[in-house]
Amino acid sequence: MEKMEHTILEEQAGERIDKVLSALNKEWSRTQAQSWIKEGHVLVNGQQIKTNYKCSLNDRIEITIPEPEELDVVPEEMDLDIYYEDQDVLVVNKPKGMVVHPAPGHLTGTLVNGLMAHCKDLSGINGVMRPGIVHRIDKDTSGLLMVAKNDLAHESLVNQLVEKTVTRKYRAIVHGVIPHDYGTIEAPIARDQKDRQSMAVTDNGKHAVTHFHVLDRFKDFTFVECQLETGRTHQIRVHMKYIGYPLAGDPKYGPRKTLDIGGQALHAGILGFVHPRTGEYIEFEAPLPPDFQHLVDKLKNNR
Fold first, then answer.
1. Distance (Å) of CA 211 to CA 22, 79, 173, 270, 271
2. What pLDDT does residue 72 have?
């Protein structure tokens, strides 16, 4: 392990410790610094501190930089549908049925396995099981994901998600015919107390907002575009169920009798964000997968 010491200067007094650390080395992000603080790798005057500690003049900072943790996730060659890639970020179109990152008992065949074979440089902020992953989409949801190739890019993309400046638009088919063209669902989401594997709208949940507009109406279904303002787990699926229009094919939140299409009809079609290095806004669009497009055409023909 590498060790480093620093004494707080006058211009650094009053600053948060994580901000001071990230300024000492341009390769260290604030998120990385916060992880080291929480893990006890940073001492101030010989004492452990919290991430919000405000530095004082002549504080003596000791940093023990941990060795990078060896990834025990196996790279796997995959034919990834990559829409964009440079030294900082990568945008990939995930197919339906693929899990984004490994989990205990499910260590292979995930998007992360494929990404690790495709490129050796992925941010380490989320640890060994989720390198580079900034946000997720469900296994049976297809569409665009942004991936960070270094910690500075990761922090920038996460901050954009927190500040709600990332464009995320999804196409979905829902049960029922929605009468109005536009709507906003603002309802807090938390884990369902009756079923810990599911999410639900609850009073003590986290703030969640979904905007939608109708693209087409069929006999018993509606084709909608949903735009995420927040990114809670299963947000679109939970919100559309909450207003009485659950996603077609959804085994968890849909009605018992739904379309047999191997999972929810949901596609993350548009993704836009500010590039972490250039500051330029970039946006990508992935067309509906063939099976999803076939379903839309079939419903059009049957109305």
1. 36, 33, 15, 14, 15
2. 65
DSSP assignment of 58-122: T-EEEEEEPPPPPP-SPP-----EEEEE-SSEEEEEEPTT--SS-BTTB-SSSHHHHHHHH-S--
pLDDT tops 90 at residue 105: no
pTM beyond 0.70, yes or no:
yes
Look at residues 222, 217, 215 and name the one whose alpha carbon lies nearest to residue 169.
Answer: 215
Residues annotated as part of the active site: 138
**Contacts for 266 with CB less than 8 Å, ≥ 6 apart:** 138, 140, 141, 142, 143, 170, 171, 172, 236, 237, 247
| pLDDT band per the 50, 70, 90 thresholds, residue 129 | low
Amino acid at 12: Q
